[in-house]
């Protein structure tokens, strides 16, 4: 595969990741509003509603799980870059490519493998909240786990393709 095709494929993967991440990021505004409402109702009116409280947990899960790949794409993940920041573009491409192949991709595939049965069993029984008045969509929430893992697999593949494209660009130059 040529360098331009690798970078085009990476660009497509990253566009999906970015679109999902930006859409999910707006849920943080909803999260703040729901949290404010719960606090206002509880302390201002001595009234609480379990579904609203669980909605906060649901929103947290949605935001954090579906923004994982976007965070990695934006290079905002945790990294000890004492040495990395001094590396050349070529060295960074090698590090990123190997890191994605050795760490991110295997971890993401393992996460997908481990969470899929967890989601399937929740879906089979249409698992709902154990709390009276809670939300009935726990099985949907558990479906976010394999979805997050799949988005990380796509991200890892995109990072490998992009870094291979950068390395090939230097070889072709």
From TrEMBL:
Superkingdom of the source species: Bacteria
Which Pfam families does this UniProt record tie to the protein?
Answer: DctQ (PF04290)
Q: Does the keyword Hydrolase apply?
A: no
Spell out where the chain crosses the membrane.
20-43, 55-72, 93-119, 139-158
Purpose of the protein: Part of the tripartite ATP-independent periplasmic (TRAP) transport system.
One GO cellular component term: plasma membrane
Swiss-Prot/TrEMBL keywords: Cell inner membrane, Cell membrane, Membrane, Transmembrane, Transmembrane helix, Transport
Family, according to the entry, reads as follows: Belongs to the TRAP transporter small permease family.
Q: What protein name applies here?
A: TRAP transporter small permease protein
